[in-house]
Amino acid sequence: MVICDGMGDRPSPEFGNKTPLSYAKKPNLDALANLGAMGLMDPIAPGICPGSDVATLALLGYDPRVYYTGRGALEALGAGVDLNEDDVAFRCNFATIDDSYRVIDRRAGRISEGVSELAESLNKIRLRKVRGLNFRFIPTIQHRGVLIFRGEDLSARVTDIDPHKNGMRVLKSIPLSRSPGARRVATAVNEFVESSIRVLSGHPVNVKRHQRGLPIANIVLPRGAGKLPKLESLEIIGLKGVCVAAVALVRGVSKASGLRLLDVPGATGGPDTNFKAKMKAAIEALHEDNFVLLHFKATDVLGHDRDFLGKVEAIQKIDESMGLVRDMVDAERTLIVVTADHCTPISIGDHSGDPAPLLIHGCGVDPSGAPSFDERNAARGDIGRIRSLDLMPMILDLLGKGRKFESQGYLKNCRGSTM
Ligand code: ZN
Ligand code: ZN
Fold this sequence. Notes:
alpha/beta; 8-stranded mixed sheet; 5-stranded antiparallel sheet; binds zinc ion
């Protein structure tokens, strides 16, 4: 299963009303589409705009309405943190603010150099307002990180500090329930953020960035408080395998669902990733396992950046790497699924509620004969329009692993009768 994050898009008038996917030269994906079936897939339901967290859960067959417990915990798992049941984790950005607490750059110029030094200083902060509570800050990729609070009976029912938009003021975290656990977490995260400004502002890493004219990382903005999700392993439905992804969130969802995490040299979680190395690792994993989730983040990053041609280039690099699949995979015995977790249209610069294009190839799928893999041809495809949550049962059915329907049981959506 190849997930091209945010790949789906809307037509751009400046580029002949094409989408990045229809504009890109991608002979390998087009050939797979010609011999496979296509359709559209609503991440949650028509018009509902998802985050990558709920969208990825749904792709793996976990109903987000049942299993979603907040993004922070998934990011923390993906960053290699072993979470306890009571822990509350936030995802965070290093960001740039001005003297009036207004956010100038939510990503501090996508800072990547020096983040471990910044993290080291942050971890020396002593929180004084809440007793019996420890924290750890772990940088992940570029400007991203996770913040974990450990203590008894903590609650993730608190609001974000991150205002989610440049130009807005930094928020205060507020408890959303009357529980002491929520109040303690809100107090602690507010104190941590205040302290982060003090620790980061004059930090040598930032002094250097200032001299080089780069945005300084003078605050940590936490958001998406969450607790450890309880996902039944995909092994229950007969899938044993690995995840090839660099971004912490996808690694976290994969780990929680029982997939092993592969580390691939050169995988960055951005447009500069080594697409072919990731594809090669994914294909090689199929010698031992029967399921591989391969995730590319570049398409989403460039969608957020509103970079049409950049997104085209990322799609073309994914296509080049798909050439390895055509050479190395036994198409009769392998089901290849290529899709996006959601759309990140250039015209919006963010996720949308549009359906994502879906391509399924192999294992007896009826060839579409269509000329190319893009949103328009996917809309005309045999699969029609499904929800992401429908995908995993369809995959199991095509693999001959489907079971007869039973209303109870783990992964209720995927698993039929065990009789
Ligand atoms: Zn996404
Ligand atoms: Zn995104």
